[in-house]
TrEMBL record:
One of its GO terms (cellular component) is cytosol. One of its GO terms (molecular function) is methenyltetrahydrofolate cyclohydrolase activity. This is Bifunctional protein FolD. It comes from Candidatus Falkowbacteria bacterium HGW-Falkowbacteria-1. Homodimer.
């Protein structure tokens, strides 16, 4: 088994960012700035925000944290976004997800100025800004050092938007995507024959990506030796974090795989910072 070390990849990305930002500051430019909006008191969200703030500081990106209460209205949320949209000293805006159910997440995300959308959610964003998760997928495939041209990938997904963006992204790299939603999978797993047929199908693919957030549901029966597995799912159980792939069940297979933790997560944080620098440079060059 070949572990795709997301921490090592992220450190390389951050080192390159730190050097570039240092060079910009040395010739009189200000630091790039990232605004983070956190709603509520979820311990996991607070942890993820603190990790992003720490990584930003390491590369020379200033951060400002805007805390909203779960009881705040959507109008208050929108006012905060509009304020950040208009602040010339803010280059990137990041909304820590998930939001409380009372908020219309898509409406709020689409209200971000596309020029400052470092999470890649806005439809009108620059083509130079890619979803950090897709960037992490790209980094993972590059790390394997294998020619994936004219290969096939299979995706387990929750979000149709994510599925569609992943399909377009992989197609540009000559990789064809097939997929099944988490709802459809839940139906298939209830019938032994349907589950076996799906397992037989997924074993025929070169790449398997899972972004469901259902701990350890992917067993060795879904996989074949030589596959590349990118585990985007993450679930916290007590003090431990698990991915969609049952790592213990598959660890004796000949796979390229991103672990959880230490795989896609650190790469996405680094890629958010990379997008912040891209947004900064695009705004500086207007």
């Amino acid at each position: 088994m070949n572990i795709i070390d997301g921490k090592k990849i992220a450190e390389k990305i951050k080192n390159n960012l730190a050097k570039e930002i240092y060079d910009l500051i040395q010739v009189g430019n200000r630091r790039p700035s990232l605004a983070i909006v956190l709603v509520g008191d979820r311990s996991d969200s607070k942890l993820y925000v603190s990790l992003k703030e720490k990584s930003a500081k390491e590369v020379g990106i200033d951060t400002s944290l805007y805390l909203l209460n779960e009881n705040d209205s959507e109008d208050v949320f929108m006012d905060t976004i509009n304020f950040l949209n208009q602040d010339d000293n803010v280059d990137g805006i990041l909304i820590q997800l998930p939001l409380p159910k009372k908020f219309n997440t898509n409406k709020i995300l689409q209200n971000i100025n596309p020029e400052k959308d470092v999470d890649g959610f806005c439809t009108g964003r620059s083509s130079e800004i890619l979803s950090p998760v897709l960037m992490a997928i790209r980094e993972s495939l590059t790390n394997v050092k294998k020619d994936f041209k004219n290969t096939k990938a299979f995706l387990f997904y929750n979000s149709e938007i994510f599925r569609d963006e992943t399909k377009v992204f992989l197609k540009k790299n000559d990789i064809l995507l097939d997929s099944v939603s988490s709802d459809d999978f839940d139906q298939k797993r209830k019938e032994k024959r349907s589950l076996e047929l799906l397992q037989t199908k997924t074993r025929e693919y070169d790449i398997l990506i899972s972004a469901v957030g259902s701990p350890r549901f992917i067993k060795k029966e879904f996989l074949s030796d030589g596959m590349t597995i990118i585990d985007v799912g993450i679930t916290k159980e007590g003090e431990k974090v698990f991915g969609d792939v049952d790592f213990e069940d598959v660890k004796k297979m000949d796979l390229n795989i991103t672990p959880v933790p230490g795989g896609v997560g650190p790469m996405t944080v680094a890629c958010v910072l990379k997008n912040t620098l891209i947004a900064y440079k695009l705004r500086q060059n207007k």
